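Page 47, continued from p. 46.
Same chain as before, 357 aa.
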Amino acid sequence: MDTYKIAVIAGDGIGPEVLEEGVKVLKQAAECDGGFSFEFTYFPWGCQYYLETGKMMDEDGIETLRQFDAIFLGAVGYPGVPDHISLWDLLLNIRKSFDQYVNLRPVKLLEGAPCPLKGVDRKDVDMIFIRENSEGEYAGSGNWLYKGKPHEVVLQEGVFSRHGCERIIRYAYEFARKHGKTLTSISKGNALNYSMVFWDSIFKEVGSEYPDVTTSSYLVDAASMFMIKDPGRFQVVVTTNLFGDILTDLGAAIAGGMGLAAGANLNPEREFPSMFEPIHGSAPDIAGQGKANPLAAVWSSSQLLDFLGHEDWGAKLVDIIEDILIEKKVLTPDLGGTSTTSQVGDEVVLKLRQYTI
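Result:
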């Protein structure tokens, strides 16, 4: 039997609540299958840890995490800790240290999920965003000159390497080919005359090796409009760190809300552990009230199972999420229900128990 070692960083706000349900679901999937198991190790890192110790994680945290097969993250961020500290000292530190250069975010409107768009067929909202996750606008390169003086100057630099751009674009082409999907690149080459022209040229160059993949390219402003007016034109999307961050939140809004938004941070070569997380944030205003929607954490669990080679169970979890949305009997308040976080998790577990592969 395979035993997967999973590092659990519940984090802040609603993170511990939703992640508890994700862990519960993973344990049940393993029990149903009988051919694998999980060993979970919990770490108290996050904003509360920072307020107590002055650090978002232990100094040897990266070395500690290196021994695990995957990382399951709840949420990062809480009042009293500046956002750039909570983000850079934990989430981005892990992503960069483990070269998790693929950020994989599904934007799929499940049956039963609410959608603010009118007259849109659900099957047309079915995209996979492949976001460059290691450099670009989030490389952390720049300077702050003459700080606090009337003539202070801030330089925020985007870093786009051939290595970084080519590997994420090639990953996207391979993904589109494997799944028989179209591939769209989103950039801003008309205004960003170095970085995005470079990105566009590499997309075209790599594309010459994939003549069987149908491609499109859009400027990010046009892509934003088309995601609302004609989402069916997008299947697999590859884009930069910043644009991917923004557009996937837009995607979450049209595909049921942030409570259904999951994300995987992948090191495809498996030299380092990959990390899985709901992307809804810590929502401190509802923390501890049992109102948080755990379905994004369940979807993240599905992605984790996919990555570990158990795609059958991963797909079943997405089916179960859809069943719960259609039935509308056990939903949290954000989806119009009255159930608690744990009750929704229990419902997922119950449905898993009724399923045998």
